[in-house]
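Good morning C.,

I know you're traveling, so I'll keep this short. The sequence:
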Amino acid sequence: MTAAVDESALRDAAATFCTGVVVITAMSEGEPVGMSVQSFVSLSIDPPLASFSPSRTSRSWPRIRSAGRLAVNVLAADQSELSRRFAISGGDKFHRVDWERGENGAPLLAGALTCFEADIQYEVPGGDHTIAIVRLTRAQPLRTAEPLVYFRRGYHRIAATDQA
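The tokens, ready to paste straight into the viewer:
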């Protein structure tokens, strides 16, 4: 039998893994809904699949799930306040936020680095989170800027570098 990992140590160790930040958005009953996510990852090019892992306690995820279609808005370094807004529970997260509907109807946030549009394929239980698998239907790079990253429980900027 394996000993349990200390939760505090696990959180501290996980915080050393740098991630990008996205806002998952959808239209639910005619209203925009969204949530910040750090767990977005590309799974496959053929077919074009990606995943992210919303918390099982999320109030936004059930509304996004019911929409069936969503957008993944990859945030730029100057959008940390937008990430914070979509990370909180409740309230009108879209108040004074510029956005437009994508081809699938999901909100595309102004200023995002890239927006992916996707259809939800299925979910897999993942402890206190759900692993959502989505099929990407559109990818739209929008601007060149530094990405927003999350590291050691805070937002940071990294400079893009040229690859040799």
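Safe travels,
E.
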